[in-house]
Amino acid sequence: MTIRSIAVVGAGPAGLVAAQRLSSAGHDVVVLEKSRGVGGRTSTRRSDSEARFDHGCQFVSRIDASPRDEISSWIDGGFVDRWSPRLAPGTTTPEFAGEHWSIGVPAMNSMMKHLAEGLDVRTGWRVESIDRIDAGWRLRRADSKDVVEVRQVIVAVPAVQAIELMKSTGFRHLERLEDVQFDPVWSLLVEGDGVPELPFDAYGSTTGPLKWLASQSSRPGRGPQTAWVGLASSAWSREHLEDDSMSVHDALMKSVSELTGERWTASGTVHRWRHGIVANPLGEPSLVDRSRGLIACGDWCLGPTIEHAIISAESAVEHAIGMSIG
Ligand SMILES: Cc1cc2nc3c(=O)[nH]c(=O)nc-3n(C[C@H](O)[C@H](O)[C@H](O)COP(=O)(O)OP(=O)(O)OC[C@H]3O[C@@H](n4cnc5c(N)ncnc54)[C@H](O)[C@@H]3O)c2cc1C
Hints:
Blueprint: E1 4-9, H1 13-24, E2 29-32, E3 45-46, E4 52-53, H2 69-76, E5 80-82, E6 102-104, H3 110-116, E7 120-122, E8 127-133, E9 136-141, E10 147-155, H4 159-166, H5 174-177, E11 181-191, E12 202-204, E13 210-215, E14 227-232, H6 234-239, H7 245-260, E15 268-280, E16 287-289, E17 294-296, H8 306-325
Helix pairs in contact: 1-8
Bound molecules: flavin-adenine dinucleotide.
C-alpha cells in the first residue's frame, strides 16, 4: 500500500482549509469525512421540493474588522454575499451574526464545496480507529475493510469526537481536549403550505425556546420555496437534548406560533447538533504532538465561528509543514 503524506479527518471548514493549503504546498493529502457531503456544521439540507435549509451555521461571522484572506477570497469568488433581511420589530441581533451579515451563496456550504475541488475527499468514510504502523498511522473506515496509511494525521473534528478517535494513539494532549465544551443546538426546518405570510424575514430573540428564525427564500441565491429555519437557544437545547424528535418538533412549532403571533399549521423536521456551538474553547490555535505526527484542530481551539476554525487550520498547517521538514 502507498503511504500518503497526510490524512485530514473531517471535511468541515477547518479540515478543508488545512487540506487545501497543504495540497497547494505540494503535500499528498487525503481527506476522510463521515457524512455524505462536505461542510460539517456549515452544511445545507435540501428537501424533496428543492427548498434549501441552512440549518447549521447561519453567517460567515468575522472576528476582526478585516476578514482573513480565506474569507476575502470567498467574497471575491462570489461564494459569500451580503444578506439584508427585513428584521422583525424588537429583534435582537444574534451574537453569531457579526457586523456584516455575510452568508454563503447559493447555500452555506458553497465555500466548502469550492474548497473541496481538486482534493482527494472521501465522503461516507467514518474513521473508526487510528493505529500506529512503522511509517506512521493506519486509519480504518467504520463497517468496512478500507484503510488509509499516512505519515501524519490532522484530526479536524469537534473536541469530544477527537478524544474518542485519538485515545488509543497516545496523543500527548488528550487531557486538554477534555476541557473544551460545546452547547447543543436543536434546529427546526419548516416548509410549504401552513406557513403564514410574515412582514419580516428574520427574528432574533433572547427569551423563550427559539433564539433565531429566518426565512430561507430571503437569503440571496436561494429558491422561491417557502422555507424557514429556527434555532433553539442553548439553554433550551441543553434541557431537551435527549428528548425525542417528535416532542422537540411540537414544542418548537408552538414556540414559532407564539413568537410570530400567527398560527403555523405546517409541519417540519428537526436536527440536533449535539456539539453545536463552542462554549468553552481551548485557548490555543491547535494541539500538536510532534513526536507522533499528530495534530488536532477546529473551531473549538479558539472560539465559536468559522473564522476561528480557519485560524486553527492555519496553525495546524504550519505545524504539519514543520514536521514534514524536520
Ligand atoms: C446551529 C449552528 C449555528 C452556527 N452559526 C454560526 C454562525 O452564524 N457563524 C459562524 O461563523 N459559525 C457558526 N456556527 C459554527 C460553525 O459552523 C463552526 O464554527 C464550524 O463549522 C467549525 O468548523 P470545523 O471544521 O472546526 O468543525 P465541523 O464543521 O464540525 O466539521 C467537522 C467534520 O468532521 C466530521 N467528522 C467527525 N467525526 C468524524 C470521523 N470519525 N470520521 C470522519 N469525519 C468525521 C464531521 O462530519 C464534520 O464534517 C454555527 C454552528 C451551528 C451548529
